[in-house]
Specification:
By secondary structure, the chain is of the alpha+beta class. It has helices spanning 2-25, 28-37; strands at residues 103-110, 113-119, 125-128, 133-134, 139-144, 148-158, 161-170.
Length: 173
């Protein structure tokens, strides 16, 4: 029974002993660190970099053509020639794709006619012949060879002005 009475007393004395052991050491090491922390530091700040004055630029390229306006090429016919697309004509399937997205993947020959095989961006293959239309610029096929499809496109050059240009779709290897 005496052991049971001593146990609570020992449990109360043990934390007090630990606390007094900690308090005897103090903060001497912390104070020494604070004292030595500022040694060797310089209090000088580097000067700001020199600010150069702004150099002005005068734009003198007013005579150059604008990069935002399409240029007329040598192989393009003038607008006054009466060229105009047939807007009442029913559009063909390959006219819904830009010419750059279409691929010529081969040719077929049946009797005296030669056909080109065109692959659309969605992977569908189409057989076309001279007279069919390709691309979004009213491109009509003029000639088909084993290596290319030549076509004539009608492009709007201004308000109600149309020009004609030749384009080609090369065979993809």
């Amino acid at each position: 029974m005496t052991t049971n009475r001593c146990l609570p007393m020992l449990l109360a004395i043990l934390p007090l002993t630990v606390l007094t052991a900690c308090s005897q050491n103090g903060f001497n090491d912390l104070e020494a660190f604070v004292q030595s922390a500022g040694e060797g530091l310089q209090s000088q700040v580097d000067p700001l970099p020199e600010i150069r004055p702004h150099q002005y630029f005068t734009y003198q390229a007013f005579d150059l053509p604008s990069p935002f306006v399409p240029r007329k090429n040598d192989h393009v016919q003038p607008a006054g020639s009466g060229i105009q697309p047939d807007l009442t004509r029913r559009k063909e399937v390959l006219e819904s794709y830009p010419l750059e997205s279409l691929l010529m993947v081969g040719t077929l020959q049946q009797h005296d006619k030669i056909f080109a095989v065109i692959k659309s961006p969605d992977g569908t293959l189409y057989r076309v012949q001279v007279g069919n239309y390709l691309g979004q610029n009213f491109g009509k096929i003029n000639h088909i060879s084993e290596s290319e499809v030549q076509l004539r496109e009608i492009v709007q050059d201004g308000v109600n002005e149309w020009t004609e240009k030749t384009s080609a779709l090369m065979l993809k290897n």
